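Recap from last week: sequence in, structure out.
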Amino acid sequence: SNGLLLFGSRGGRLCEFDGLDFKRVELSRGLEGGTVLSLQRGAEDSIWIGTGLDGVTWSDGKHSQTYSEANGLAHRHINSILLDRQGSVWFGSEFGISLLGDREFSNYRVEQGLPANLIWDLYEDFDGCMWVGTSGGAAYFDGRKFANFPLQLGFLDRDVFRIRQSRDGAV
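Predicted structure tokens:
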């Protein structure tokens, strides 16, 4: 990573901040006016950009590639992006999770064990397991299956918008 902060906003606008100045980030193509909802730095300073209308766009500054439902993405509204420690890219959407494999998407929904299809957040814990915040509670993915943590386990609301881990390892 180049150490710059990255900001996304309405109209597909991206800016980097170096601690002193903001600079607009131009892409070769993609982001046709969609609101930027999620950002993730990729390998070699590439960027994954999740939008509210246009799916997800990957850019390395010279080239861009946009993925949509036509490419197999679960939904075009991308709320969260996770680049896991294996280098896999996961997208949390309005209709499930998409995992980008070797040029193909695998999708996970309620039928595959999620508590709800509306995904708010994806987080990888210190042990490499993925946590999922949904509109129906939280879930934990161990690489094979999902375990759900519904409202009855102490959540104040069904919607789990963010999941993070403390320094002592508690999630």
